């Protein structure tokens, strides 16, 4: 009544909104490749420089469109690097298992590789940056890696090794994730992407 009219008088129907015909997924877009020296690991501060929108009649298609709009278009070579801090290794087991089921070759640093292999996930051990070749830098510079998932330790004491992995990945055009919930969302998208015909949606008509 603030406007001097009722809800019905304004043309609206009181009550719960009817289910929408479409689902929209908004995805942040980052520009770390343009910011030399910036750490791409995410925290509570706002780091995205834009966003994109995926719209479809199903959640999985909308999610897949959102990832595509954000520039993550997989797979290419079906090779990835997975390295996580000690406190995230247990959660990374399912991540590795699902990527392996999609046909990915998984490279991991010693601790992560040992954890994955002990739980039945085939991971190839790769040396850290400061160790002898072949190491993580050689893999990234080979331009045959689709994705780097690097989960840093929480707090301010983040390793220089992890920082360099993330920077080298971004600067060579390799997709890099620093949160396991994002990795889970990407997996859901990839697992439902095969044999899918995406439907264009005219947002001006919905």
Q: Would you kindly provide a brief summary of this structure?
A:
The protein has 206 residues and is α/β, with parallel strands linked by helices. The chain has a single domain (23-191), classed as 3-Layer(aba) Sandwich (Rossmann fold), CATH 3.40.50. It has helices at 59-69, 89-101, 110-118, 136-141, 160-171, 180-191; strands at 23-29, 50-56, 79-84, 105-108, 123-125, 147-151, 175-177.
Strands of the widest sheet, in order across it, are 5-4-3-6-7
Give the averaged pLDDT, no decimals. 83
- Supply the CATH architecture: 3-Layer(aba) Sandwich
Strand segment tally: 7
Tally of distinct domains: 1
Radius of gyration: 21 Å
Distance between the termini: 28 Å
Give a quick account of the main beta sheet: strands, pairing sense, barrel closure. 5 strands, parallel
Write the H/E string, N to C.
EEHEHEHEHEHEH
CATH class: Alpha Beta
- CATH fold-level assignment: Rossmann fold
Helical residue percent?
A: 25-40%
Helix count from the secondary structure assignment? 6
Low-pLDDT segments: none
At the fourth level of CATH, the homologous superfamily is Methylglyoxal synthase-like domain
Strand content: 15-25%
């Amino acid at each position: 009544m603030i406007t001097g009219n009722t809800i019905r008088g304004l043309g609206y129907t009181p009550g719960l909104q009817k289910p929408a015909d479409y689902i929209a997924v908004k995805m942040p877009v980052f520009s770390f490749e343009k910011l030399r020296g910036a750490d791409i690991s995410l925290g509570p501060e706002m780091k995205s420089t834009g966003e994109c929108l995926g719209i479809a009649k199903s959640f999985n298609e909308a999610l897949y469109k959102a990832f595509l709009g954000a520039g993550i278009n997989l797979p290419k070579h079906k090779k990835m690097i997975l390295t996580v801090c000690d406190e995230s290794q247990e959660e990374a087991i399912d991540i590795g298992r699902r990527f392996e089921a999609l046909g990915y070759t998984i490279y991991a640093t010693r601790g992560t590789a040992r954890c994955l292999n002990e739980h039945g996930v085939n991971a190839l051990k790769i040396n850290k940056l400061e160790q002898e070749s072949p190491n993580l830098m050689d893999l990234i510079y080979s331009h045959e890696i689709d994705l780097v998932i690097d989960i840093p330790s929480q707090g301010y004491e983040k390793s220089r090794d992890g920082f360099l992995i993330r920077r080298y990945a971004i600067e060579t055009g390799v997709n890099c994730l620093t949160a396991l919930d994002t990795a889970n969302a990407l997996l859901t998208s990839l697992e439902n992407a095969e044999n899918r015909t995406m439907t264009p949606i005219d947002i001006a008509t919905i």
